[in-house]
Amino acid sequence: MARSMHVRRPATLASLAAELGVSRTTVSNAYNRPDQLSPELRRRVLDTARRLGYPGPDPVARSLRTRKAGAVGLLLTENLSYAFRDPAAIGFLEGLALACEDAGTGLLLVPANPEREDVASVHRAGVDGFVVYSVPDDDPHLAAVLERPVPTVVCDQPDLGTVDRVGIDDRGAMYDLARHLIGLGHRRIGVVCMRLARDRNDGFVTPDRQHAAHFHVQRNRLSGLAEAFSEAGVDWSQVPVVERFDHNMASGASGAAQVLDRDPQVTALICTSDVLALGAMTEAGRRGLRVPHDITVTGFDGIRGGEEAGLTTVRQPVLEKGRAAGKLLLDTNERSRPRSVNLATELIIGKTSGPPRGGAEERWFGP
Amino acid sequence: MARSMHVRRPATLASLAAELGVSRTTVSNAYNRPDQLSPELRRRVLDTARRLGYPGPDPVARSLRTRKAGAVGLLLTENLSYAFRDPAAIGFLEGLALACEDAGTGLLLVPANPEREDVASVHRAGVDGFVVYSVPDDDPHLAAVLERPVPTVVCDQPDLGTVDRVGIDDRGAMYDLARHLIGLGHRRIGVVCMRLARDRNDGFVTPDRQHAAHFHVQRNRLSGLAEAFSEAGVDWSQVPVVERFDHNMASGASGAAQVLDRDPQVTALICTSDVLALGAMTEAGRRGLRVPHDITVTGFDGIRGGEEAGLTTVRQPVLEKGRAAGKLLLDTNERSRPRSVNLATELIIGKTSGPPRGGAEERWFGP
DNA sequence: TGAAAGGACCGTAACGGTTCAGAACCAATA
DNA sequence: TATTGGTTCTGAACCGTTACGGTCCTTTCA
């Protein structure tokens, strides 16, 4: 007792073994393999550990030796805190957390500030694998993750061919939504979308920018729209598409305003997310436009708030997406060639979509 | 080149150094201290690294050596995924994530299944500190955290004296809310509260259980109520207090039903969270009781949904709480004796509270 | 021309564990 | 008596890195 009064340096496995006069192996076994030593010795080890204030094997040293960190990393392109503000992201996180919990694995949120090119946080993350959620394909953090020699699952990305992937058919889902609107008679539309690249561009989007978009999800949703409306005889290059960097209702409102200012005759506002759509609806209300009588508004995602508002949208299984990503990553069983999972979506016809005002004669073109 | 054709074992700092004919230190410096070697050698190191597929210094080995994990751990008493379902928890997480981001630190969600006593996940977490959020004071995971030799901040816990603490004055806030109701004339009340201990007890709560509650927050809120109503001449032991293990609206509804079945004459339903209160309101509606004309309902937290419903409640700064916890933990500056931070709350008088029906004559007792 | 300064690089010693192939011992079996 | 088998514990080899305290060589300046 006296000699351990002033614990200059904290106790280690070695110092504990020395104190007890046994080998380090034995102390290690006392913690990790109780069946490898006699119960009384084990008790003596644990008692002495308590007396010396030894907190048990150091997790980092253990990780180094076992090559297991016991955690998976999550990379987001947004500020970390954004993940807790966006309903879809929250759902994804919940699903991912579920999968981690099942496996007894920790979930490390990696701070990847999109403003800076600093990828040190990715290099510093002690994890057994990465989940990358909705990151632009030219993000340096993504590149840094792909260089790490650990399994990776990407979400809402193009199929990279080298790592597992989870996603939905954004293009097809949006195509179906567009067909619904076309069937109703809409031909003169406006679009509000989320950011298409890492640079801020709050305004109209050129066709070039649409094609070159680094956010796979947004690019595909727009392309689904373009395809459907082009087929219906609409000149896509004339359709006003407005982009917003920040993803919140205010952006949806201001984006809708910008579209309506450019062309007050649009009969439908198609938004690439429910959050934007909810914002667009407030803007419509502000202008005295009734939804859907005067104008149709649609979203994408199927979040709670949209459901309550009766939003016409595409519901995607965000929770399942997170869970699938986690399962894919943690499933050590089949580590065959990269797997690609597409989850099903559902077109929700709500009460925010209807035939265009005075557009009944166009119903001929319906499906 | 030829000898590195078949990379049996992945490249390390040492193998890279050997290949280059320089010391390990130099390779390390190439990554960590570019100013310590000539630019051309650094380039040569990095080029060779790329050629050999060396992904840069191993984060775990680095953590072992530097004694820094670059992450803080978060311990929750609930299933991990619950954190993404409860509005208050989400707010807390957002604040904590904000603080971590500022410091460039990762945030590790530690899987601590409350059902099992298995604390291995706590032992396995490679972190520089812990934040413990709303955990019962007898939780073995909490004990395991406190044994780890890293700084810790507890939230919504009693002041342990040994670690930093962040919280609010739950007791005082609930006392003030109670005074408001007493001023309105309420004397015959019912209470719906969240779980008081780790065991499931969906039903009425004895005074003993209230006092022995292991959830500090719930205990204090109840004791604030008890104090105010006792002062107003109400026999607290006769007040129906119903507990619910699960925290969601359904629990609020069934809890309210249980109270109303026991005493249909109650004029106010006091809930210890907004989520429970929202559930209680749906149950009131189901019974044809108008709020607040027929019955008063109050909550606690100040979540978005409550605000929209005009709920009378106590607003607490959940985001600030998370941020404060993170700041306290990451502030290496003043590591003086344990600090205790109490954040301010605000009593929100909404439209779900009013004088009891036929209780106008009791207004004499108002403030 | 000699002393001091500075840049570039190196060797050694941790950091704190886990793992695996035995050694030592003892009891039971053939 | 020799063999077998089981239990309990040990020794030494890693895991991949960074901190520390040098050495060596080239410049600079009085």
UniProtKB/TrEMBL annotation, chains A, B:
InterPro entries: HTH_LacI, LacI/GalR-like_sensor, Lambda_DNA-bd_dom_sf, Peripla_BP_I
SUPFAM superfamilies cross-referenced by the UniProt entry: lambda repressor-like DNA-binding domains (SSF47413), Periplasmic binding protein-like I (SSF53822)
Domain HTH lacI-type, first and last residues per copy: 11-66
Name of the protein in its database record: DNA-binding transcriptional regulator, LacI/PurR family
Alphabetized Pfam families for the sequence: Peripla_BP_3
GO MF entries: DNA-binding transcription factor activity; transcription cis-regulatory region binding
UniProt keyword list: DNA-binding, Transcription, Transcription regulation
UniProt key word Transcription regulation: yes
Keyword Transcription attributed: yes
Lineage of the organism: Bacteria, Bacillati, Actinomycetota, Actinomycetes, Pseudonocardiales
